[in-house]
Amino acid sequence: MSLFSALKRAIGAMPADEPGTALYAAIVGEARRPDWYVAGEVPDTMDGRFDMVALVLSLTLMRLEADTDRAAPQASADITDRFITDMDGNLRQDGVGDQVVGKHLGRMMAALGGRLGAYREAGADDAVLAQALARNLWRGQPHAEDALAWVTAEARRLQARLAATPFATLHGGGWPSA
After folding, report:
1. How far is CA 122 from CA 47, 98, 114, 147, 148, in A?
2. Among 144, 152, 159, 127, which Cα is nearest to 41's?
3. Could you give the angle at the alpha carbon of 20 between the alpha carbons of 69 and 136, nearest 5°?
4. Per-residue pLDDT tens over the stretch 22-66
5. Is the pTM of this model over 0.85?
């Protein structure tokens, strides 16, 4: 079963009224958009799909960090909790035993934190963002420069769409259209 099938199943298993579920589902939906894997040539592997969820989640967390709404920090915590629940479910579905699930989740959270830090540090510098994307999405493997340029530009477009989307819309699971 693919990571996205597992993500879809795990999200479907989450109660719809659980805080952050709708927004997390929208994040996964964005990360699953075929353009990332076709035009952007992001590897369509378990690692590549994880890294796309981490990218979109990071951009969303950064958007929420910039929001002045008092509920934004809780919304960030809620979607991070959904990510943990989702990854836990995927690990268990893949047969990872209880004794090591925590260790795997710790690595996934560290990976998310590292990516969030790199994307945050890039700020408005497209060259720094491109370096972080190349390092995280292709993990040292060769990649086409035009694909990297597309992913960098698309990540910036997503950031702009997120910034233009009111907090209440995002918080309710509404996603900015392309």
Report:
1. 22, 37, 12, 19, 15
2. 144
3. 95
4. 999 999 999 999 999 999 999 999 899 999 999 999 999 999 999
5. yes
